[in-house]
Design goal:
Arc Repressor Mutant, subunit A, 412 residues, disordered N terminus, Rossmann fold, six-stranded mixed beta sheet
Length: 412
């Protein structure tokens, strides 16, 4: 069932226009808190959810949440604001100066670390990079790469940690060459060509960690443009698990899931202690990630056998079109016995089992994300009859499609 936060996300929160002075004197009933956090991306929205969760569990705060883009200069009212505390994603020196000069308790939730005197809550980039590296190593790759953006501390830290894990495992990591000294992203046309040249030069198959989901999506776009197959030749994992971005990518993007809710919650808890007069360390408070959302962009075992790799690619592209093993045999010059033997040895499943696995994964996605009737889902996933889909689904999952859909809705 939906929790209280999802039913009423603003319970116990009073939103006040920053043009109206905060409550003062004996009539003041709640702390006035400014949130300088954008709401334009999933990471920042996760921080805000965590802050709201803390407020629901502890105190009523009067919240100032101005329209604020990432890295925007401070809004004018901040210079004369007389509130009780600030939680800010401090992305440039002007914001850092404005927040510090306010003279009120403040917590920073940015990796830029431009206000070192403030308590700092951030995701644990070492743990994030380690999770991504192990995810790719488990898939049997012999070649690895990292694609980052050196404008950001968190990208550099993730690159360093990822390279260390890969190196400790006995492999070489290829890093995307950076343009030194740039403060803004280059034009997409130029960046697209540089990414294409880099991907073409990498040894394959290769597992790539991108510094975050947007960079990973760019890599997927480039791979599609230059006809490099994902995940068979290049497997890509991002960071942030922006579900809309990841599921709109082609193919859907695997991503490390940061615990943004806990990050925001911890920031609110630290600010609450500071407002109460308790000493709080300015050391980093690092929050470990929740895990990995595995999607098609890394759903592969590294395959050196080109014919089996071709067979796997054909199955992944055509499984929901109603193909069978005979169709797979038409795509590769192998006998059925040799295909079955080599496929089982490398993939750990038979070609038929792989076809069914991909179909049923797609069935699960449609059950969870749409209201399509079962007969339409069967039609879209290569099952001739909904009854056959029902039997195959229950055999794999132990439950019916209807039960699966109801259970998933209850946990949203």
């Amino acid at each position: 069932m939906p929790d209280e936060l999802s039913r009423n996300p603003f319970k116990n929160i009073t939103f006040t226009s920053p043009t109206i002075p905060p409550e003062t004197g004996p009539m003041k009933s709640r702390p006035s808190i400014a949130l300088l956090i954008e709401s334009s991306n999933s990471y920042a929205r996760g921080l805000l959810r965590g802050i709201m969760a803390y407020i629901h569990e502890h105190h009523s705060w009067s919240i100032y949440l101005p329209e604020h883009g990432r890295g925007n200069v401070p809004v004018n009212w901040l210079n004369s604001w007389h509130g009780d505390g600030i939680i800010a994603r401090i992305e440039n020196t002007k914001i850092a100066e404005a927040v510090v000069n306010c003279g009120v308790p403040a917590v920073d939730v940015s990796a830029a670390r431009l206000a070192p005197s403030l308590p700092w809550v951030e995701t644990d980039d070492r743990a994030i990079a380690s999770l991504a590296a192990q995810h790719l190593i488990e898939r049997g790759f012999q070649h690895y790469a990292f694609c980052g953006d050196h404008r950001f501390n968190w990208s550099r830290w993730r690159e360093d940690h990822f390279q260390n894990v890969i190196r400790d495992a006995g492999y070489l990591c290829h890093a995307y060459p950076q343009t030194t000294g740039r403060k803004q992203a280059p034009p997409w046309e130029a960046e697209q060509q540089r990414l294409a040249d880099w991907i073409q030069q990498l040894p394959k198959p290769v597992g790539i960690m991108a510094c975050y989901d947007i960079k990973a999506q760019q890599l997927l776009d480039v791979c599609r443009t230059i006809n490099v197959s994902v995940p068979e030749e290049v497997a890509i994992i991002g960071v942030d698990n922006d579900e809309i971005l990841c599921n709109l990518s082609e193919p859907p993007l695997s991503s490390v899931i940061p615990n943004t809710r806990l990050t925001g919650y911890e920031a609110a808890a630290l600010l609450d202690r500071m407002i109460a007069g308790e000493p709080v360390s300015s050391d980093a408070h690092l929050i470990k990630p929740l895990g990995i959302a595995t999607r098609q962009s890394t759903d592969i075992q590294a395959i050196d056998d080109k014919l089996i790799s071709d067979a796997v690619r054909f199955i992944r592209q055509q499984a929901c079109e109603g193909i069978n093993v005979q169709d797979v045999l038409k795509s590769v010059p192998l006998s059925r016995r040799v295909l079955e033997s080599r496929f089982q040895k490398i993939i750990g499943r038979s070609p038929h089992e792989e076809i069914m696995r991909i179909r049923l994964d797609r069935v699960k996605q449609l059950l969870e994300e749409t209201e399509l009737p079962l007969i339409e889902i069967a039609n879209r996933t290569g099952f001739r009859h909904s009854e056959y889909l029902n039997v195959a689904f229950k055999k794999q999952t132990g439950t019916t499609p209807g039960q699966f859909r109801r259970e998933r809705k209850q946990t949203r």
